[in-house]
Amino acid sequence: MSEALAELGRRALAVLGILGHSAAFFVELVRTAPRSLRRPYLTTVQVHAIGNRSLIIIAASGIAVGLVLALQGYITLSRYGATESLGLLVALALARELGPVITALLYAGGAGTSLTAEIGLMKAGEQLVAMEMMAVDPRIRVLAPRFVAGVISMPLLGAIFSAVGVMAAYVVGVWMIGIDAGAFWSQMQDGVDVIKDVGNGVVKTIVFGIATTFIALYIGYECEATPEGVALATTRTVVVSSLSVLFLDFILTALMFSTP
Amino acid sequence: MAQAREATGATGGDSLVSIQAVTFGYDSRVVLSDVSLDFARGKVIAIMGSSGCGKTTLLRLIGGVITPRAGQILFSGVPVDTADRAALYALRRRMGMLFQFGALFTDLSVFENVAYPLREHTQLSEQMIRDVVLMKLDAVGLRGAAALRIAAISGGMARRVALARAIALDPQIIMYDEPFTGLDPISLGVTANLIRHLNDATGATSLIVSHDVEECFRICDYAYLMSGGRVVARGTPQELRAAEDPGVRQFIRGEPDGPVRFQYPAAPIAQDLGVEA
Amino acid sequence: MSKKQIETLVGLFVLLGMLAIFFLALKAANLASFSFDTTYPLLARFDNVGGLKVGAPVKSAGVTVGRVASISFDNKSFQGMVTLQIDHGFQFPTDTSAKILTAGLLGDQYVGLDPGADEKNLQGGDTIKMTQSAVILENLIGQFLYNKAAEAPAKEGSGPK
């Protein structure tokens, strides 16, 4: 019995230790980010690796979600004779919630894991120590550019997801089902607020971008320098990132969209 | 203390790097206890010992990657372990380190790897960088491989590229972490010759951490033998070959049994096999 | 991939992202009609503001001319006090009346302005004198039932004589 309690205590202390250590890591990341911008090419390469490579899956998912939202939304709205609000429904759902959250989850699974694996393997191959020995700070040259690139890429990807989703819903709603195009857009424009809906959605993607990129980099940096260690780390990145995104989404939604 | 002074005299010349009464360990495990070594300028010095005796830890201590619990490490008279980050980086620019498996940047080509320290720490023009890189690659015999990707070269070649990168800024000290491990005889000969040749040509100090006694003795001027976190023997290759300590003899000659027992401690074999003696 | 190519592709990616944001802002949201024109405030007191929310449109002849800026309770007159921000481009006579209307049958509520005939216009900070409160469903039902009950005895009276 006392053994179990001791174990619980050890685990709790370990978690606290990780929280503190990761917080220090985050502070260092933010601190070194501006300095890494002195070599913008480093960040550009990372935006290419993270953003451009995720573009296809994000766009494809956006189209798919937009299509499905339009179909499902139409079925429910036609019950109340409110099918002309389909555009509004899709736009709000995407801009406020689905755009940021799904993009973040896909990003964590794709770009996040590749970041973790890359940093972990660099650590395993002693590349980071080699850099240190050559008097080059790996935080500025390796970690910070990836962090900045992630924070830049996420909002762009999220916006692309939502925009593509709306367009896909238009195709389904207006061309396939036959809703009036004018009503589709006008109801949407009337009900979607730039600051409150689109703006908050962008804020969400920025927050998710910071969180997921930081988590991916930290787990990669701290993982065991073995093949098994790297494999474990990538799985952990997906799990921790996804849970964080969902949890942050809950908090942000409560802050942004609760009725006054 | 007396030991340290004696070592300085033995290696000749003043020491570039001086490790003084250093103790290092993790939590419960002590890796090095009260070790003192000196490395004179312009010499090739080997640090030998079986795995886990603390050899690689010494290199990391000299590079300032880890700090000792007690004692001091001086590089050209300046303490390494107490230096702030900027000063530490200034010291590191005068060091070159060759990691066991090269630690090359896998996303860059051979040329880009060697050019890396030049781009980071000098303001040389592209043309000059190109010339220096090709010269360094030529010194290790890989000038023709400049355009290859890291994934395309063999282990032995990777180590030579890493060596070219380590000497790119003409460091005062070149540290080799297990440079002979896992190489075929030809590559062994090439590497050993390179180490000696580079040392003599540039006047740098070379530190080799290895357990390959024969190759080390072929090229080094002085050697330290370590075991269990302590220095158990020091001297020129001739002195070490003539050593009388059984532990030293066993290591130098590669004898299978001696102070380091062949059999892991166990009960008598008759007991294990269930045969009544 | 060469440095130039990478930079071009990244530039394209950033451009795409910005286009998406602009698309959402302009086509999907109300940025196009989001005027940064200055507005002037008008006050209106209602007996019951119903379901009127801050940010609801203020319309006249069905066209949006402003927004509801704030709703508060006037403890002296025990009425709801609504502050409207009207675009500077629209002026209303001093005898304009304000009503709380509902968009569609079950939609959101908004403020409708019926212009009067006065020559002078309302200035910033003026109060709209004539207001009509929101229609409260319970009151409507109560009224309906009361009317029905009032009709019945009259009918009975004229029935079997």
Please characterize this protein's 3D structure:
The complex is a heterotrimer of chains A (260), B (277) and C (161). Chain A has 260 residues and is an all-alpha fold. Chain A has one domain. In chain A, 89% of the residues lie in helices and 0% in strands. Chain A contains 8 helices and no strands. Chain A is elongated and about 65 Å long. Chain B is an alpha/beta fold and 277 residues long. Chain B has 11 helices and 10 strands. In chain B, the strands form 2 sheets. In chain B, strands 6-7-8-3-9-10 form a 6-stranded mixed beta sheet, with helices on both faces. In chain B, helix 4 packs across helix 5, helix 5 packs across helix 6 and helix 7 (185-202) runs parallel beside helix 8 (213-219). In chain B, 40% of the residues are buried. The model of chain B is unreliable at 1-12 (pLDDT under 50). Chain C has 161 residues and is an alpha/beta fold. Chain C has 2 domains: 1-34; 39-141, no CATH class. Chain C has helices spanning 3-28, 137-158; strands at 39-46, 57-60, 63-74, 79-87, 97-102, 109-114, 127-128, 130-132. In chain C, strands 7-1-4-3-2-6-5-8 form an 8-stranded mixed beta sheet, with no helix packed on it. In chain C, a hairpin with a 4-residue loop joins strand 3 (63-74) and strand 4 (79-87). Chain C is elongated. Chains in contact: A-B, A-C.
**Percent helix among the residues of chain C?**
25-40%
Gyration radius from CA atoms of chain C, angstroms: 25 Å
Largest interface: A-C, 33 and 25 residues
Largest sheet of chain A: none
Global mean pLDDT of chain A: 90
Give the N-to-C terminal Cα separation of chain C. 103 Å
The radius of gyration computed from the alpha-carbon positions of chain A, rounded to a whole number of angstroms, is: 22 Å
- What is the percentage of strand-forming residues of chain C? 25-35%
The quaternary structure here is heterotrimer
**How many beta strands in the DSSP annotation of chain A?**
0
Largest sheet of chain C: 8 strands, mixed
Give the amount of beta strand of chain A, in percent: under 5%
- How many domain units of chain C? 2
The count of helical stretches of chain A stands at: 8
Low-confidence stretches of chain C: none
- Average pLDDT of chain C, rounded to a whole number, is 82
Name the overall outline of chain C: elongated
Please list the strands of the largest sheet of chain C in the order they lie side by side: 7-1-4-3-2-6-5-8
